[in-house]
Amino acid sequence: MKEKDRRSKNASVTTAKGRGAEARGGGRHDQKRSAPPKGGGFKERPARPAAAQTAETREKPAKHTPAQETPARVIARRTGEKPAERIPLILETSDASGYHLIDSGAGEKLEQYGPYRIVRPEAQALWPRSLPDSVWEKADAIFTGDTDEDGMGRWRFPGAVLGETWPMQLLGTDFHGRFTSFRHVGVFPEQLAHWSWVKDQVERAGRPLKVLNLFGYTGVASLIAARAGAEVTHVDASKKAIGWARENQQLARAENLPIRWICDDAMKFIQREERRGSRYDIILTDPPKFGRGPNGEVWQLFDHLAAMLDICREILSPEARGLVLTAYSIRASFYSIHELMRETMRGHGGRVESGELIIREGGLDGREPGRALSTSLFSRWVPQ
Prior knowledge:
This protein is an alpha/beta fold. Helices cover about 20% and strands about 30% of the residues. The protein has a single domain (about 10-95, about 165-380), classed as 3-Layer(aba) Sandwich (Rossmann fold), CATH 3.40.50. The longest helix has 14 residues, at about 300-315. The two termini are about 25 Å apart. About 55% of the residues are buried.
């Protein structure tokens, strides 16, 4: 919802996912790559066995005490057959216009974001670098400081000092890249696999699909879905992240797209949607390990994930196209969230496909297939 845990320890930056405006981390895998499909920048395959936007649509939650636990949800035991399964599924982001992973190794990664080459810590890069140090030393920006996923640090600019933001484009959608104090840059490119899937579902639907983007961060997924024709509800607890999302919307010249930007605690929002009888055709959810909502609500992934998915099932429409969960920086196998998703969707038919999101090295030009860097776990329910 990678690299991913993008949550800040700074209360002013914490978000709805509890997701502060930044932080993430990942699990890992390796897979052989063929040429990426035209225009997609990603491919999908099973691994080998082993209406115009409202001006300021905001839900106004009730007042709470500073550190409030989300009320426990009693999850009824569901009956019926579990959905079919497809595992493991590796979703790969390789060369994509606007982004590619150049090289990785020695606990770091060298990436191309638009015009800039950027070096950031990457604990999963256990191997030696492929390219010489002279290439890495020519990076435009290098993150230094705490190598923890949510650790603070600073950016060093070996050449000219760069501004906080720069223009980016992925899947035809413009947005800002951004240097943050938590190593992240306002976008998680491994999510291109999910975004391309959502775009395809929306374009083929023959009707406007309703998409809910929980823990939506800086809004790139919401903009891509809306541009494809969806009616989008974007939820994040961070006012700062919502502000960045609106800046991205303006840069993308997408002010008239049907997007509701909602600053709220994710769990409280979907609980109200369940009571209202609201329904969505696609739900994207990318929760952090830990976070706080705007009124001190506490999110703990292992404590609250099952309840969150249970509510998400209830607010799926009868003709839903999918429920997508991404999990970063957790000590778990994809099997854990895979079995949870199958239990959640028991009796609902369809198929649950789970695995990892990976990014493939592409060398300096993005076209020299190298090693795979795993970034996160995911599980996705789809109707068969």
